[in-house]
Design brief:
There is one protein chain. This protein has 332 residues and is an alpha/beta fold. The chain contains twelve helices and twelve strands. A ten-stranded mixed beta sheet has the order 1-2-3-4-7-8-9-10-11-12, with helices on one face. Strands 5-6 form a two-stranded antiparallel sheet. α5 (122-137) packs parallel to α6 (158-169). The protein is elongated, with a radius of gyration of 20 Å. The protein starts with 5 loop residues before the first helix and ends in a 21-residue tail after the last strand. The structure holds S-adenosyl-L-homocysteine (SAH) and iron/sulfur cluster (SF4). Residues 102, 108-110, 149, 153, 184-186, 207, 249, 251, 280, 282-283, 285, 324-326 line the site of S-adenosyl-L-homocysteine (SAH).
Length: 332
């Protein structure tokens, strides 16, 4: 797919034409320009020549019932991964990538190990949702939620991510409410401040993974730039404006961040009724081992007895390595 020229081709068109195109491609999910029959022939031909609607996608062969991973080859040959998570209550969540690779270098993360290639454009982000939306349409279903938890750090690609959110949000396109869209960040403070200034009701998730600076800096280099104190201060400023729950993601890595002292430190900084800690089992990517069930359950007990809100979500798809945040195209 290549919609890079869509904005420039439509630049001099009247508003209602732009609406027709958006409704056709992102609303009705057409895959052939000739299907928008009310467009003038010369515009349609121009679009067909310059804006391919084909998604170059390879589905993971070992797909499971509740999740499906796809490898998408972009028009410059770069490869990204996206995941569809199907929930029993008929919610369908697409986990999208925002960059090819990631520059943040978190030690536990498969994407981090790939290094950074480039940012995705808003249409390359949308392409991932579009692929699954077309699939679901065949079953009379739709994409209900989008999470920016695939490859890359969304707040380092702010404008394109929010350009994509505008299309996801638009009633002429995907019509997905802001409350159904979540952005996960390793803690890019400038980006969180920018979100705070916006009026959009999107959900914010913070990848925390450690509750003291020394450990967090050793796992996530971003912490050397922005300390935990600074991070929590901007999140609290965000809460003053938005008063929406903020999710803190916490991977459990055997012997590294799953000790009693880690749980106690975490409990200390998570005492806020709008904070929710999401405990994620670590998916091994080389260096570390996942925590045992017992360690996870003990960790959880410390948090609960301290009055911290705790959940365990986004754990499906592990059988195909398809859970969000566990994506890497290296070697494919
Ligand atoms: N860059 C953003 C968004 C993508 S990562 C961020 O870091 O928040 C989405 C989530 O998956 C993050 O919480 C990330 O820390 C987590 N993750 C990374 N590696 C993982 C692994 N090996 N197992 C489980 N979760 C992982
Ligand atoms: Fe990048 Fe997020 Fe992976 Fe860290 S966890 S390397 S920020 S994708």
């Amino acid at each position: 797919m290549n919609l890079g020229k869509l904005d420039s081709i439509l630049a001099n068109q009247p508003k209602y034409r732009i609406k027709q195109v958006f409704q056709g491609v992102f609303g009705s999910l057409i895959d052939d320009w000739s299907a928008i029959s009310n467009l003038p022939l010369d515009l349609r031909q121009d679009l067909a020549k310059q804006c391919s609607l084909d998604v170059n996608a390879t589905l993971n062969l070992t797909e499971s019932q509740d999740s499906q991973k796809v490898l998408i080859t972009l028009s410059d040959g770069s490869k990204i991964e996206s995941v569809l998570l199907r929930h029993a209550d008929s919610r369908n969540t697409v986990c999208v990538s925002s960059q090819v690779g990631c520059p943040m270098g978190c030690r536990f993360c498969a994407t981090g190990k790939m290094g950074f290639k480039r940012n995705l454009s808003k249409f390359e982000i949308i392409e991932q949702v579009l692929f699954f939306a077309r699939e679901l349409k065949a079953e009379n279903q739709r994409v209900t939620n989008v999470v920016f938890m695939g490859m890359g750090e969304p707040l380092l690609n702010y404008d394109e991510v929010f350009g994509a959110i505008e299309i996801l949000n638009s009633p002429d396109a995907f019509n997905i409410g802001a409350r159904k869209i979540s952005i996960s960040t390793c803690g890019i403070i400038d980006g969180i401040k920018k979100i705070t200034r916006q009026d959009l009701q999107i959900n914010l998730a913070i990848s925390l993974h450690a509750a003291d600076d020394e450990l967090r800096s050793s796992l996530m280099p971003v912490n050397k730039q922005y300390s935990l104190t600074e991070l929590l201060a901007v999140v609290k400023a965000y809460l003053k404006k938005h008063s929406r729950k903020v999710m803190f993601e916490y991977l459990l890595i055997d012997g590294v961040n799953d000790r009693k002292i880690d749980a106690q430190r975490l409990a200390k900084i998570m005492k806020n009724k709008l904070f929710v800690v999401n405990l994620i089992p670590y998916n091994p990517t080389g260096e570390f081992q996942p925590s045992s069930h017992l360690a996870i359950s003990n960790f959880k007990k410390v948090l609960i007895s301290s009055g911290v809100n705790v959940t365990q979500r986004y754990t499906f798809g592990q059988d195909i390595g398809a859970s969000c945040g566990q994506l890497a195209t290296a070697g494919k």
